[in-house]
């Protein structure tokens, strides 16, 4: 009987270890995202797979019938399929797969919602056309008739996806600007004209034909944008793509998923429960039967537990060795880059599963060794000192201790895998590894004048998507300007300090007065609220909602504050953000906490001011804690690393990385936002200033690959520390 109990205890513990390991890995959706992050899957998808010539047909089809050059398709993949959108799509499929393995869904369902991608196709047209016509104008046309003829020719070029050879340049009086704007508005749907007309009139009035054409250009494409969207929609079910039939048609064998489902349903069902009962029963048989001494009985239980832990480790090691036969092998028709990525992800998942299993196996092994050595320890420590217990008390004490160790080993076989596995709170900025890095050791993508967007119809915008969409696209630092709506007398004064072109300043004085009458309250504006404004409290509330929906993320606001600290504190209170606000240490030289510590505390919103310093303890002057580079560059080659506000030697480092030659420049952004350009400058500045760059602040963050550069900086720092 006792040999049988010994074997039952060992085998039951193995079953518990394997079942607990399955719960923490193949049945835990966060486990898969952690493996993808550890293998750099998302970065490799953009940097290796989607730029692989073998995948050109897929990327070409992604933009349907848009008249866009092939190079632009590759360069703007992140605009059409942003990393945040891709992560959401992948997580949705992981959820379906886990539900299938758990037996919660009867069939394997991989249904991808492509509607965000279809929406981004239209947004990409606007971005591309803005670049297409920017700075194309180069010669003056002295009369209005010639001006309109050349404007017609330029519009025809745009409708075919061609860059205009040149654009006419003519300063128009207000009446003529309205006439030209009316003519251009003919290409715009009626429901969009009212919001677009002020921007077009202001551009034409200042001679900036490029901006006017960039605004109406997407509508000049006629049915090309809707056509490209309908082409993609035709391949899906109204924007949703069921991938299972296509995977089977491509030769992918999904039989392994069916086999895994059979095992996992057993593991989660009655098998695990029976194994737990048998293990405890067998432990009791070994501990309380037979005429042997108490020391022998305790050693029996300990030996069985230790053997079960060792056997579990052996089983897992053998399974890892054999698991290669179960891995999916991509068909030969797939691009090599896809095959390499898939192979690395599968092996990474197998290694992670083995790691969790070994940690779990160590618990019964350690508990068994402790029990087996308990009689020896008792004889050496307790008995030698004369502290002998009576037989009954000794049996009670040892029985209680032994039972506790067995129970801990059995319960631990279920709970330890969950602790050893991946938890959603362990992902910081989408990466598990960054959780252990201090806030002042991490690089964040920051958007300069984040509120000044084309989405919110600012005149002279410096970003395209709105603030929430910027966060979705990877921005984790927002440089914003708080203002109150200026009186007519204040407009001229503020315009003198603004970085708008001179002609646009004149137009704003006249045109924006008519388009944007004064409004009370607190606003986010770029220099002049009449040139564009969004409400402060409502925008802060949207940021808070985004943080609630992304529990592993952290956001920093750097505020150019024309509103005093007391009113700013009231705005954050009204937005309901006090629960999220992080309070920096009063000593600027004190080391910052890690991202994991900040996220676990729930204090995931850091707010700095350029001028104020309080009164709220969380609202501190940035330049007490940080330093920056200059920001008035008029050409890429001027960008340097010399000290500016904040001096030197601070723990935080803001890299102002944008061109302000009479306003923001899309063409310059396409140069300075390139990954290698950012990396070269960041590394140079880090070497000169002796501190890692923390905030890379850019204009037009969706142009180029600033997000990829920031990701690369963080990976390099992790590798250096490792």
UniProtKB/TrEMBL annotation:
Gene3D superfamilies: Phosphatidylinositol (PI) phosphodiesterase (3.20.20.190). PROSITE patterns: PROKAR_LIPOPROTEIN (PS51257). Keywords: Membrane, Transmembrane, Transmembrane helix. The chain crosses the membrane at residues 267-289, 301-323, 352-374, 395-420. One of its GO terms (molecular function) is phosphoric diester hydrolase activity. One of its GO terms (biological process) is lipid metabolic process. It comes from the Bacteria. PANTHER family: PLC-LIKE PHOSPHODIESTERASE (PTHR13593:SF140), PTHR13593. This is Uncharacterized protein. The lineage of its organism: Bacteria, Bacillati, Actinomycetota, Actinomycetes, Kitasatosporales.
